[in-house]
Each structure stands twice: as C-alpha cells, then as structure tokens.
Design brief:
Length: 156
C-alpha cells in the first residue's frame, strides 16, 4: 500500500512548522488537491477534522482525529471515509540550524480503482504536498535568513 517517508531540515523553528501543520482549516488555501477542510471540534490537544481531497474525477472526504503534542509531534488517526486505514505522523525535532521534520504517511483505499489511480502518482503527490507546507512557511514567516530550506529527503 502507498507509504511515504521524508526527512527534511528546514530553517524555521519547530513551533512555527508545528503551527502550520496544525492549522488544518487553512489547508485548502495552499495544499494541492485539498478542496475542503473543516475542524468539527477541538478540545485541548485533540481535534476532529474533515478533509475533502479532489484529484481528476475523484473527490473523497474523510474524518481524522488529530493529536497535537506541541511543538514536537502531530499524530493523525483515521476515523471515517474511503480508506481501509490511514496513518500519518509529523515530528518536528530541534536542530541548531532550524528543524528536522520527519513525515510519514501510509494508507490503503477501500476502492481498488482509487488505490490504482493514486498509486501511480502517490510519491510525487506527497512530495508536492510537503513542498506546499514549506512554501506556506515562506509565505507566513518569510525567507529564512540563511537562504532556502535544506533538502535531505529519504523515501521509504
């Protein structure tokens, strides 16, 4: 099933990157293929959120429970929608130059048609989504003083 891991050093602080990823309601403003987002509820460090993703003729909505452990970790647990399962983790590790981001996503659609459609473009789609978060960081926080972010991706 599609699985993607990336590790990337960025020149922003862990709290800044955490805040961008935790701001689920703003995803449609910058995240490719995200055409809708709604935070149903938020209590303390836990939120229940709906996302709608559209690509080509496909449009799917799903619900996730998002556990926020600021500023180090975001864990997404799938609740309802078109997947058999969805696992997603973000870790924001302090580094003397900024933040080492560890990103992981693994999922399987219930529909074989959807699984085959996304499987062909999955790695590139996730790369674009991770890049969209980094562009969002530049848009919100400005360009880091020492230049562009440092890339060190590792696919798994």
């Amino acid at each position: 099933m599609p699985r993607y891991t990336e590790r990337k050093l960025v020149l922003y602080q862990p709290g800044q990157m955490f805040d961008l990823v935790a701001d689920v309601g703003k995803y449609p403003q910058f995240l490719p293929w995200c055409i809708g987002a709604r935070v149903r509820s938020q209590r303390g460090d836990e939120m229940l959120a709906d996302l709608t993703i559209g690509f080509g003729p496909f449009r799917e909505s799903f619900t996730s429970r998002v556990m926020l452990n600021a500023p180090e970790h975001i864990h997404v647990r799938y609740e309802n929608g078109p997947f058999r399962y969805l696992r997603n983790e973000w870790r924001f590790l302090p580094d003397e130059r900024g933040t080492m981001i560890d990103f992981y996503v693994d999922f399987e659609f219930r529909s074989l048609i959807l699984q085959k459609a996304i499987g062909a473009v999955f790695a590139e789609a996730v790369r674009r989504m991770v890049a969209a978060f980094l562009k969002r960081a530049r848009d919100v926080y400005g360009t880091p003083q020492s230049g562009a972010d440092l890339a060190a991706p590792a696919e798994g």
